[in-house]
Amino acid sequence: MRTAPTSSQAPASTPLAAEEEAGPSGGVLAEGVDCVAVDWYSGGWTERGQITAALRASDAQPWTLVRQHLLAFWEQQLRGRPVVLIGASLGGAVAIDFASTHPEAVEKLVLIDAGGESYKAPPPDTVAAFAKPVLAVKGLFQAVQARLPDDASRIVSLHRAEPGCYEASLAYLESGSMARRVGRERIQQVAQPTLVVWGTEDDILPLSDAYAFERDLQHCVGVREVPGSGHSPHLDQPEAVLAHLRPFVAQR
């Protein structure tokens, strides 16, 4: 969502771009703040065919093309205005990669239960070697998830029926995953002010990862715990997350 400027002035504030599982928080972040949700390659609703074809036709890695896609979006849709970039879950690793590679595009960074310090996955070589059977198991799980009665589970699964989703997921897993690109060394290259938000009951990525980010980031403004939330506090308790985001985004 984006707050429209008047015809005589540019938008008053920095736009906010959100990576993966942005949830409902963007649109009500703050009056006067542009909020834009961006789906990255292997998740959400981004058209995958051209990127997958480019991967298969070259030695490029998925994360390289994901960065190029995000950069093109920033240049063409956001007109090159620096953003406050939010990355949730695996999208946090994507956001770290983009912020460290294109500091001119990112004014501030928010990491919500983000991958990077650790991943809920085996080592990259194992992920690559077992990509097809792993994807088959995930497919069975996701088929069950899509039939659960609660809206949240079904919404999370909707995009997986889109054309090219399986091929994109396979290409990503065969690369070994973002763990090949984003780890402690890459995290230490992030120079932007960064806020870390974490659900205290996250059973996918431990709360200790939040404090590892605080240790490794050049300019971490702090860790904000969301008591009782799991891996997606922005979905579990959006108002609690927004209460942490608003002053950070507004601060100049």
Automatic annotation (TrEMBL):
InterPro entries for this protein: AB_hydrolase_1, AB_hydrolase_fold
Residues in coiled coil: none
Name of this chain's protein: AB hydrolase-1 domain-containing protein
Superkingdom, natural source: Eukaryota
Chain ranges of the AB hydrolase-1 domain: 29-243
Ranges for region Disordered: 1-24
Compositional bias of kind Polar residues: 1-12
